[in-house]
Design brief:
Blueprint (H helix, E strand, L loop, with lengths): L2 E2 L2 E2 L3 H10 L6 E5 L3 H15 L5 H4 E5 L5 H9 L8 E6 L14 H11 L6 E7 L7 H9 L1 E4 L5 H14 L6 H11 L10 H14 L7 H5 L6 H13 L3 H13 L4 H23 L4 H8 L3 H11 L4 H19 L5 H11 L1
Parallel strand pairs: 3-6, 3-7, 4-5, 5-6
Antiparallel strand pairs: 1-2
């Protein structure tokens, strides 16, 4: 979760949940961000609150944001609800809010929309969604001024643990704190540039719950079913190497190569992780606090924690030596002096 002047900001999920409970939801909303799972959840909560399920088809309209024009949107908003508190209009992936062009939606149409949303019918709840937000646009600024904008980014570690525990309870399962931590780490949810989201995580949770033989989901159940990604496998490989488990490290390396990961990508990930480890180790030796390191590095706290744990097994000089070896291996592979697989195996052997 991002930090602002030393304090953690409230996640959009919490903000939305509180406002919904307290009846503070505006009639004009914009949902965006990485977590489509949370966006879908928020829309579902609003439909449940304002629309009679018996006549949902008449009072809930789902529109495609890459096709709609202003006239069509206005007609939807002007239609009165039937036997429901409000008519809910969802415009999915509205391209202009992400800063992208939409055919048939130029400057004139945007000005018309800007004027219209300032005075929406009281019976209408209008929701826009997009993958990202272009906060420079007049439309975004107007949505922020007279409505509500929610950035459904990744959950922080505390909220993610709570999400996992709640999902497990629904399936009448539970798991220990250590097993949940191992699952989070193996999932790669906090890895840089990951495409692993709550939808992936929930799917892996379901598999782990089904795989478990009793009420408790064990670490083995999680690790045996989590899908993960290349970056997660590299983290596990470095962890094994740092603890002297070379056989396990080689096994993870060969699995990654067998699954289609290229030598170049794996080497880049190894270099990237040791670069973070080096920075963390140097700052720790300068006496910087964990919070200060997180602010200086500008990457997720979870990644800093993992790098710090790995770095604890190495000296600064050792990390620098490994990095130099990795850079040399990269050069040898790219210049054809050494075959990629063999070069990686030798690098792992020397760590």
């Amino acid at each position: 979760m991002a930090e602002t002047r030393g304090r953690k900001s409230t996640h959009a999920y919490q903000k939305f949940n509180d406002e919904l409970k307290n009846g503070q939801i505006k009639s004009l909303l914009f949902f965006y961000g990485r977590e489509a799972y949370l966006i879908d959840w928020a829309v579902d909560m609003l439909v449940k609150k304002y629309v009679n399920p018996a006549v949902q088809e008449l009072n809930f309209a789902r529109l495609s944001g890459d096709e709609i024009d202003f006239k069509g949107l206005r007609n939807q908003c002007e239609t009165l609800p039937m036997m429901s508190d409000k008519r809910v209009i969802l415009v999915e992936n509205f391209l202009p809010l992400s800063g992208k062009k939409l055919k048939g939606f130029g400057e004139e149409a945007e000005q018309e929309l800007l004027a219209y949303i300032r005075d929406l019918p009281e019976t209408t709840l209008l929701i826009f969604t997009a993958e990202t937000a272009d906060k420079r646009r007049k439309l975004y600024k107007e949505l922020e001024r007279c409505g509500g904008c929610y950035d459904f980014k990744e959950l922080d570690e505390k909220l993610l643990r709570s999400f996992i525990e709640k999902r497990l309870r629904i399936w009448k399962k539970k798991a220990g704190a250590g097993s949940i931590a191992a699952f989070i780490e193996a999932s790669g949810y906090f890895d840089k540039e990951t495409d692993y989201t709550l939808y992936n995580l929930e799917n892996d949770l379901k598999k782990a719950a089904a795989h478990s033989s009793g009420e408790t989901v064990r670490t083995e159940d999680f690790l045996g079913t989590v899908s993960g990604n290349a970056e997660t496998n590299v983290f596990a490989m470095i962890d094994a190497m740092s603890k002297g488990r070379k056989d396990e490290a080689f096994h993870l390396l060969h699995n990654s190569l067998a699954s289609g990961d290229s030598e170049y990508r794996l080497l880049a990930l190894i270099c990237g992780q040791f670069e973070i480890m080096l920075s963390v180790k140097e700052m720790q030796e300068e006496g910087m606090s964990h919070e200060a390191i997180c602010r200086r590095m500008g990457i997720h706290e979870f990644r800093i924690k993992k790098a710090s744990a790995f770095a604890g097994h190495y000296s600064v000089s050792r990390i620098r030596k490994i990095l130099m070896q990795a850079y040399q291996v990269d050069k040898k592979i790219k210049t054809g002096l050494m075959e990629g697989r063999l070069a990686l195996e030798l690098l792992v052997a020397g760590m």
